[in-house]
Amino acid sequence: MSEILVVGSVAYDSVVTPAGSREEALGGSATFFAVSASFFTPVSVVAVVGEDFRGEHLEMLAGRGVDISGLKRQEGKTFRWSGVYGTEDANARRTLDTQLNVFADFAPELSPAQRRARYLFLANIDPDLQFDVLHQIEDRPRLVALDTMNFWIQGKNSSLRRVVTETDILFIDEGELRDLASEVNLVKGARQVMAMGPKAVVVKQGDHGVLLFHGESTFRAPAFPLENVTDPTGAGDSFAGGFLGYLAATGDLTPGGFRRAAVLGSVMGSFAVESFSLDRMGALTLADVEARFRSLSDLSSFSPLGDGENLPWRDSPRKPYTT
Amino acid sequence: MSEILVVGSVAYDSVVTPAGSREEALGGSATFFAVSASFFTPVSVVAVVGEDFRGEHLEMLAGRGVDISGLKRQEGKTFRWSGVYGTEDANARRTLDTQLNVFADFAPELSPAQRRARYLFLANIDPDLQFDVLHQIEDRPRLVALDTMNFWIQGKNSSLRRVVTETDILFIDEGELRDLASEVNLVKGARQVMAMGPKAVVVKQGDHGVLLFHGESTFRAPAFPLENVTDPTGAGDSFAGGFLGYLAATGDLTPGGFRRAAVLGSVMGSFAVESFSLDRMGALTLADVEARFRSLSDLSSFSPLGDGENLPWRDSPRKPYTT
Description:
Two copies of one chain form a homodimer. By secondary structure, the first copy, chain A, is α/β, with parallel strands linked by helices.
């Protein structure tokens, strides 16, 4: 049995970015997540593809040790998405075309083994499907994590709220959090969402990093400052793959474990955007990932105040100012 | 002699923010900078005000121990600015009105004591004035720091480049850096600017924190996640005040010193935006500042990989993926 079960999309993406373009590249939320998490723990994918899905892509997933027994091949074409990214804000992408194809009738059905999953990632799909999958699991999984998007926040709000109630970790963009919570302030918004059920909210802020709210603990995980961003597609799912991969591999659900998980998520997300599709992430070595983890540690470290140590205060007396 | 000399504006601001509004509140780049830095080191202000400048505001600055002998009182009215802030992006402010008044003819002239300043902050004013002030200093100061804005990047580009060449630390918003360097990527843009002269570039990313490029070192200083943002005016200058105040007070210009300076800048910027004008910052105690510095340490800390420690790699062999 795999440690993590992911339910989501497998797609062919055609993207135009400031760095170039790529036609019909392997993508999809389940794909990026599974390849990212597969470095750390066994992953099982539940998704649907069409008759046109290429054998080399099945082999790639299997070659990464991903369990693809739940990847259903169905009459019709694989889900296709195409879009254009702007130069400054990777989140400001414009969709040119979406062809759901076989994904339109996606009705995930878990195998007996999959029903015993301990870690579940409900990637960004219809919240009714997310709810249905969650309730196919026999026992309560150790962790249920969920990703969503504005389309569901606006279009299926009550369905989304129903499944969020049973979620442990919510991954969400800052703009989406503001929408979901009807609250501009991210701290207040995260607290509101946590009051609905989740133990943790991971607020994604693109190339500025993430804010992790976990119980009473707040953590800011830095993004790695990249010199070359090729294609932002899949960054969020790769982040989630590193995050949950670390938690499942270590079983460490303490605040310290969650913090490291967020940093590893940031590491995997940074690799994802350095190439089109999975070119960079699929070719990573252990040394690459650990080196970037160490870089991120260095990038965000500074000398804290020791016990009893003071900041260099000026000696002269100062009057407090009141208006 | 004061440790830091700041040349900039002293103003009355009228602002509307999502949290409320305030008319004719004390503001200006030199004001926020001086009050922030005054916690750590003596500061001397060079600026101009009109006949309407209120005695209570002179007393406030003097009461904070700020040397206001260079605050020239001139016939006419004090500089006035009014603007409106949007709900999500504090940098997306809209100026309603600017009345330069006495600031229109601002021609700073340093006193003999000021000409011996060791730390110089050239706040956001005309780059020709910044250049002129810099060349009034007798010896090369230990540190010259400069802030600017799009107005000068677009309108006085060659003047700005001339003074940036002689600057040690440039404070700049990420959008402004992209403009100045004609480069979308912040890492590349910062390197280009450093090739012009500055040893350090501090890229301000609003409520997401700052990226500090300092020699070969890159550091991401977290912003403090605030529950209540009242008025973003003055955040950048308060950041610079904490940053340079720390460096001048300690004399520590090592990479470690710069990192702590950036965190203290973030601390002071976070206080500045919690109230209109200087209400919050002026009333701070030592305990407030140190407590927030410790909070920021906690907020960004995670357990790094120890020497020889590995991430939890999956045992099974995996095939690298190539397209």
